[in-house]
Design brief:
Blueprint: H1 4-24, E1 28-29, H2 31-34, E2 36-42, H3 49-58, E3 65-69, E4 71-79, H4 87-101, E5 106-113, H5 115-143, H6 146-169, E6 173-174, H7 176-206, H8 212-244, H9 250-277, H10 282-285, H11 292-296
Parallel strand pairs: 1-6
Antiparallel strand pairs: 2-4, 2-5, 3-4
Helix pairs in contact: 1-6, 3-4, 5-6, 5-7, 6-7, 6-9, 7-8, 7-9, 8-9
Length: 299
């Protein structure tokens, strides 16, 4: 905990950089949120992205996004939605334009999402994260004490902002699977924080001759081995998903890897440090004494 000032400055700097990126660059929303047409096509040889763009421009799809998807022979094409235009017909038109240049082009995947559906998903995703944070705040206040609740929520907000910021800074695609990963990060980080808080509460009641900072240091050191082993074993699985799982789960696994690294850090340096700043004491965590006289007076 004597390093908490340094880590606080680091966390604030990361959050500020992330917020600036979110306001200036934004997120590279996937079709789940923007709506439109998404086509994944495969070629027998490395695809010529310039030729594909020129063919789409000639077919009135100048705003289409074209990029390689995994390998040089796989191409991902995304077209934003237009009112009054059938998405299925748009997909057929694009495939026809590509087939005119290479008859061997193969359609691997096609997704059609309307703009209204994308808007609803954006709103519901934001509400889901807000609802999760509020329920966690209530749970920690009941389970521990309000000072620890503030610390846990500060850690969760810290984790979510930094994880989302990574996707904004590097412009990784942000779709429903990434949103699901961020909600999973909230649960993982909360579990890690509660384990640390539980040990802190026990030691506050057992080690009364030491100050709050020393007790927190003792508690964190006692749980550090468990925290590192849990995080490392989880990261091994996620690295396997990232490297071997393909494009479909790449965003999901990447968001979880970032979230677990940041969540492990915040459980130690953000949640506990926040409770320490709020001057948590032994009296805050001692069980409330029952008034025996009041109990004796009960009928």
């Amino acid at each position: 905990m004597d390093k908490r000032r340094i880590t606080t400055v680091l966390s604030v700097a990361l959050i500020l950089v992330g917020i600036i990126s979110l306001f200036t660059r934004g997120l590279n929303f996937g079709i789940d949120f923007t709506g439109g047409v998404l086509l994944e096509v495969g070629y027998s040889a490395p695809a010529d992205l310039g030729d594909i763009r020129s063919r789409l421009d000639g077919g009135n799809f100048a705003d289409a996004s074209v990029q390689n998807f995994g390998t040089a022979t796989d191409v991902l094409i995304r077209v934003l939605p237009e009112e009054g235009v059938d998405s299925a017909q748009v997909g057929d038109q694009i495939l026809g334009l590509l087939a005119a240049g290479d008859t061997g082009v193969e359609l691997r995947r096609a997704e059609f999402v309307g703009p209204q559906v994308g808007k609803e998903l954006t709103e519901r995703g934001g509400l889901a994260m807000l609802f999760a944070v509020i329920m966690i705040l209530i749970y920690i206040m009941i389970r521990f004490q309000w000072k620890f609740a503030v610390g846990s929520v500060a850690a969760l907000v810290h984790d979510v902002i930094i994880t989302i910021s990574i996707f904004s800074i590097f412009q990784f695609p942000f779709d429903l699977s990434v949103l699901a990963a961020i909600l999973a990060v909230i649960g993982y980080s909360l579990n890690d924080t509660i384990v640390v808080f539980d040990r802190i509460r026990e030691n506050f009641r057992l080690i009364k001759q030491q100050g709050a900072e020393e007790i927190m240091n003792t508690s964190i050191n006692q749980m550090l081995g468990r925290t590192i082993i849990t995080s490392l074993t989880t990261l091994l699985v996620l690295l396997a998903l990232l490297l071997l799982g393909g494009e479909a789960v790449r965003g999901f696994s990447l968001a979880l890897i970032v979230g677990i690294l940041i969540g492990t850090y915040s459980s130690i340096y953000t949640a506990s440090a926040s409770a320490l700043v709020l001057d948590v004491t032994t009296e805050d965590l001692m069980p409330k004494k029952v008034d025996k006289e009041a109990v004796d007076d009960l009928p």
